[in-house]
Amino acid sequence: MRKDYPARRFTLSNGKGFIVYIKGRYIVSACALLFFQQAVASGMDCTKAASAVEKAICADKPLYEVDAQMGAAYRKLMNAAPAQAEVKNAQRQWLKERDRCGEEVSCLNQRYQDRLQVLHAQWIDAVAYKPDDIDKQVMEDLQQRIREMSKENPEFALERALDSLSTDDGETSFSGDPSDDNTYDQTLFPKSIPKGVTPNEWKALKASGLDADAEQGQANYSLIDLNGDGQRDLIVSTYTGGTGLFSFYETFRRDGERFTRRLAPYDPDASAGSSLFSTNDRGANQSAAWIKSHGRMYLAYRNGSYGVDQIYLLNPLKINSQIPTVTVQYDYKLIVPSNQYSEESSTSYVLDPVLRKTLIKALTQSGAGKPQQPSQHKGPLCPIPASGSGDDDYYSYGAGYYAVETVMDLPVFIDNECFIARLNNWFGSYSEKDGLPALLTLRKPGSQDPERGFSVNGRRHFMNVTTSIGKAEGGAEIF
């Protein structure tokens, strides 16, 4: 059984540790702490501290450590940046700004955090893969393929287009061995050669130090040629759990007698915890598939929400920053099924026809099925009585919950009484059998009566597909 952990400490191959913190739908991983591994070793020489600022840094351990991170980040950028003079000048200017803080630790810490973000962004810009003409053509071809598929099947045009490009040629997959330690859901790198792995590949796998990746959780491994050089590369997927039930995926290039981590050419200190992408199984709608087009392999990473699917075409063995993206938009025909399910009694029941008609009418009039047109309603959803229990109670349904996506709040009038309703869904999750599952909950403003819930289903219809190149969102937003 999968367990949820709000925070976990992982051990790197060099013996140092890092902590992964779950924050709602997002996770702060080792990718956001690329420079920390060498921090203490590269810190300021406090025996030579002279100014008030330097002494304040040396007297505060967390501040000293972030100063060390700064040194590592600056050197890393200097090694990668084409215009080193500009980097040096910018760093000198920042030091002057830092020194204005004097001995104020909070001010110094903020200056460092802001500068680290800038250096990291500049480093990514310097080393990240830049999409070329072939990548752009692949993106445009996928867009056209989706348009063509929509003429025959406007409901599943995206899935049909991706399936037509999918590939698993020559792929071999195997799992890690179970661990004797039941504290965490964890596996160990296999002790014996798995079926389908050649002796040459097995020798390279054992020489690649993959134990650290296995220590992060339940690990699985796949061999497939990702760059067309005739040798199979490695994909390691690790389920780490946490609030969002996260899984992380990293790739390794076959490099002679071993497999080399994707980040190694850009960050020699890269170790376990880096990821090409991640998926969140609770609080997101994400998936990934290998596709091949114009002789190249891509990881088609899908991040969904209500009315929108975004497909990011990731280069599997590079750092991705500016990413070819295909965006598909839908609208929905929403219905309220006659057969409803009662959570309290675990039984089904037939919804009153008049109430069902009222709910469908409210959804239709609100335009909830057209997510590309958000509601412009600014006033209270229900009339505020003169003796109301507080105006705020009439403007929205209330606080949301990260594991579901709110579509909109709307009024529903039942027997001349106004109820505030909220339509939720699971980030556009969709299936051929059930379509879009959603939930409409109602509450009476100014009342302590329990809320009422009704299941809603929707069938989607393709509206438009566009392309762009830019930053990713969701689990592809690793950097």
UniProtKB/TrEMBL annotation:
<protein>
    <submittedName>
        <fullName>DUF1311 domain-containing protein</fullName>
    </submittedName>
</protein>
<dbReference type="InterPro" id="IPR052755">
    <property type="entry name" value="Lysozyme_Inhibitor_LprI"/>
</dbReference>
<dbReference type="InterPro" id="IPR009739">
    <property type="entry name" value="LprI-like_N"/>
</dbReference>
<feature type="region of interest" description="Disordered">
    <location>
        <begin position="165"/>
        <end position="192"/>
    </location>
</feature>
<keyword id="KW-0732">Signal</keyword>
<feature type="signal peptide">
    <location>
        <begin position="1"/>
        <end position="41"/>
    </location>
</feature>
<feature type="domain" description="Lysozyme inhibitor LprI-like N-terminal">
    <location>
        <begin position="46"/>
        <end position="118"/>
    </location>
</feature>
<dbReference type="Pfam" id="PF07007">
    <property type="entry name" value="LprI"/>
</dbReference>
